[in-house]
UniProtKB/TrEMBL annotation:
Ranges in a coiled coil: none
Source species of the chain: Streptomyces fuscichromogenes
Pfam family, any one: Robl_LC7
Protein name, entry field: Dynein regulation protein LC7
Residue intervals of the Roadblock/LAMTOR2 domain: 9-100
Organism placement in taxonomy: Bacteria, Bacillati, Actinomycetota, Actinomycetes, Kitasatosporales
InterPro entries in UniProt: Mycobact_SerProt_Inhib_Rv3364c, Roadblock/LAMTOR2_dom
Length: 135
């Protein structure tokens, strides 16, 4: 799990402050459990984390169909009505998700997310689980 969560929270806030239009940021495990969030309410963050598990699985399956790909999902960007959804691989078994409105510039957001992942990637890991227990 994430260590030094207080320090991690300010980094999520820094991402939100660095790009206009951010509504919610969620860090999640590969199995869809919320690790941390900034913005939004906890229930919405939990629902987003659960949905992201399916999105990352789908993206990984699609990536495996490209012969030159290693099958890993790096970044998913979905334009939604009046906004954007971003999902980025952020370490072993961890992902960074962002919901933003239309004022958000997609290129800037993906750049800021990559910078955040590089800076704190070692803290954005979640141990694998089996039957709800850490392995």
């Amino acid at each position: 799990m994430i260590q030094q969560r207080g320090n991690f929270d300010w980094m999520l806030k820094q991402l939100a402050d660095g790009v206009p239009g951010v509504e919610m940021i969620v860090v999640l495990s590969a199995d869809g459990l919320r690790i941390a969030r900034h913005g939004g309410d906890p229930d919405a963050a939990d629902r987003l984390a659960a949905a992201c598990a399916g999105v990352q699985s789908l993206a990984g399956a699609v990536a495996q169909e490209l012969p030159i790909s290693n099958g890993d999902m790096n970044l998913v960007l979905i334009e939604i009505d009046r906004g954007y959804f971003y999902l980025m691989s952020a370490g072993a078994n961890a992902y960074l998700a962002v919901l933003a409105d239309v004022t958000c510039e997609p290129g800037r957001m993906s750049e800021m997310m990559r910078d955040l992942v590089v800076r704190i990637g070692a803290h954005l890991t979640s141990p694998p689980r089996r039957n709800g227990q850490t392995v």
